[in-house]
TrEMBL record:
Protein name as catalogued: Raf-like protein
CDD domains: PEBP_bact_arch
InterPro entries, A to Z: PEBP, PEBP-like_sf, YbhB_YbcL/LppC-like
NCBIfam families: YbhB/YbcL family Raf kinase inhibitor-like protein
Domain of life: Bacteria
Taxon lineage: Bacteria, Bacillati, Bacillota, Clostridia, Eubacteriales
Pfam families registered for this protein in UniProt: PBP (PF01161)
SUPFAM superfamilies per UniProt: PEBP-like (SSF49777)
Length: 155
């Protein structure tokens, strides 16, 4: 039986730890590197979301990217853009990061909790880069074969 809980590492961020400054809006604001450890043999693509769980808007989306070809490593500093050629056409949608990664940047003096979720899908998604998380997740829902989360804090 296949394990549907995805194990992954977000380089520089221990689960429940503090975000590295370079991955925040107060640093270089670059996406971290991800190392996937138990990827399903049925995996076709990966999708990643970054949500601010402390934001007044529940599950406020900082970043969403999908159609990353299934692989065990996603390099850091994914560039801005609707379609990422270095990731064979992976698509970045609409969030706080408009077609780009937008790291944590809560109001000064406030600590916010964030969550990276990596989804493993058995297909590619045919969606506009102008799609929001709700639409992407709705389309992906029946195709998610693994999922994993890492939480972090930033002040």
């Amino acid at each position: 039986m296949e394990n549907n809980v995805l194990e992954f590492e977000c380089v520089g961020l221990n689960n429940g730890g503090k975000f590295p400054i370079e991955n925040t809006g107060r640093g270089k604001d670059i996406s971290p590197e991800f190392i996937i450890q138990n990827l399903s043999t049925r995996a076709v693509t990966l999708m990643i979301t970054l949500e601010d769980l402390s934001h007044p808007i529940k599950g406020f989306t900082h970043w969403i990217i999908w159609n990353i070809p299934a692989r065990d490593r996603i390099t850091k500093a994914i560039p801005s853009g609707k379609s990422i050629s270095s990731l064979q056409g992976a698509v970045q949608g609409i969030g706080y990061g408009f077609h780009c990664y937008a790291g944590p940047k809560p109001p000064k003096g406030k600590s916010h909790k964030y969550c990276f979720t990596v989804y493993v899908l058995d297909c590619k998604l045919d969606l506009s880069p102008f799609s929001f998380k709700r639409k992407v997740l709705s389309k992906a829902n029946r195709h998610i074969i693994q999922e994993g989360k890492i939480y972090g804090y930033f002040e």
